[in-house]
Amino acid sequence: MPFSSFNLSPTLLNVLASLGYNQPYPIQKEAIPAILSRKDVLAIAQTGSGKTASYVLPLLTKLQGQGTSRNRHARVLVLVPTRELAIQVREVFILFGSALPMPVKTLAVFGGVSINPQMIGLQGVQVLVATPGRLLELVDSNAVHLSEIDTLILDEADKMLNLGFSEEMKRIFALLPQKRQNLLFSATLSNDLAEINQIILHDPVVVKIEPEQENLDLIEQTGYFVPLEKKGPLLRYIIKQKDLKQVLVFTSSTFQADNVADKLCKNGIDAMAIHSKKSQGARNESLREFKAGELRVLVTTDLLSRGIDIEYLPCVINYELPRSPKDYIHRIGRTGRAENPGEAISLVTPEDQQHFRIIQKKMGKWVTMIDSANIELRGY
């Protein structure tokens, strides 16, 4: 079942094709048609299963036919537990929506930063991604109104309940119009989640996706202990000493992806960064060159990693570790495909060591570690 079998915007189908998204993931196959049909959805799926795109794509399609909304009256509300997820969800909306004929203004709001820029940014917003506490602050300040919310999404609802947001969420539910579409995404179905489900979902389509098992047997995994300030030289040393011809490097942010690619180029290693802040044309060209073997190093974030499927990719390097073991397994699974061996290398700072131990324990495999203190990095 290709994406073209869904009633998505033709522009979105072109964007998906240009990013290398050829077939929908299991959660997308079931959730996209239900969301386009205005059904409520309860989806149980792990992080990294493609859940964000499963609601972003149909909602962008729907918003194209609705025109602009009243100022400070968003149409779509996405509630998330953390600042990091708020930023990531907004980036997915921008990634797929940047080429649409009618732009969709998306804003992420969260605590821990000044509220004033967020209040200004709410002008003309159509999609609001928010943590519950900051959203209520903005509501109390009359900076945003929830009376015209057409679709409510709870993303990682289990984590919000674990972090104690249930009372804030109930207050938010009371501010929303009763007639709306509700989409609830969670990694687990706990008793607390069942209670929230009964409050907000009406005859939902239930989607439950079992976690995929990556075959890691063909992947040779190595880790390097390295101080933070020596990460760049060590990355360049590994690429040059191993004479790696095609390398996918993962970073945790768009800023770091640009920085790593720039440093590689300045040291004679052909590299480009690909992420959501690059233009559509730049992303397409970088991916084409990398897949064709014309570009030695492609630096990316987890956001675009699912669109990068290369049958014979020999090496993946984690310049920075991902936030979850699931994301780590997905990253290194870009290599070692189609019965071909692959290599996965991780750069591990002292601050990362405990997190990397957790990743290895969850993965069920222990990685061979090398101390970079014994490597001469001068000149790299």
Brief overview:
39% of the residues lie in helices and 17% in strands.
Account of the 3D structure:
It is a single chain. Helix 14 links the parallel strand 12 (315-318) and strand 13. The N and C termini lie far apart (47 Å). The protein contains 15 helices and 14 strands. With 380 residues, it is an alpha/beta fold. The mean pLDDT is 89. It is 39% helix and 17% strand. The protein folds into two domains: 3-208, P-loop containing nucleotide triphosphate hydrolases (Rossmann fold); 219-374, Rossmann fold, CATH 3.40.50.300.
Please give a handful of descriptors for the protein shown.
380 residues; alpha/beta; Rossmann fold; 7-stranded parallel β-sheet; 15 helices
Strand content: 15-25%
Q: What is the N-to-C succession of helices and strands?
A: HHEHEHEHEHEHHEHEEHEHEHEHEHEHE
Question: Regions with pLDDT < 50 over 5+ consecutive residues?
Answer: none
Query: What is the annotated CATH architecture of the largest domain?
Result: 3-Layer(aba) Sandwich
What does the largest sheet look like? 7 strands, parallel
Main β-sheet, spatial strand arrangement? 3-4-2-5-6-1-7
The SS-based structural class is: alpha/beta
* SS elements, strand count: 14
The name CATH uses for the topology of the largest domain is Rossmann fold
CATH class of the largest domain, please?
Alpha Beta
Tell me the radius of gyration: 21 Å
Query: Fraction of residues in helices?
Result: 25-40%
Q: In the CATH hierarchy, what is the superfamily of the largest domain?
A: P-loop containing nucleotide triphosphate hydrolases
> Counting H and I runs of at least 4 residues, what is the number of helices?
15
- End-to-end Cα distance, whole Å, is 47 Å
Mean pLDDT: 89
Which shape, going by the Cα principal axes? globular
Domain count: the total is 2
Multimeric organization: single chain
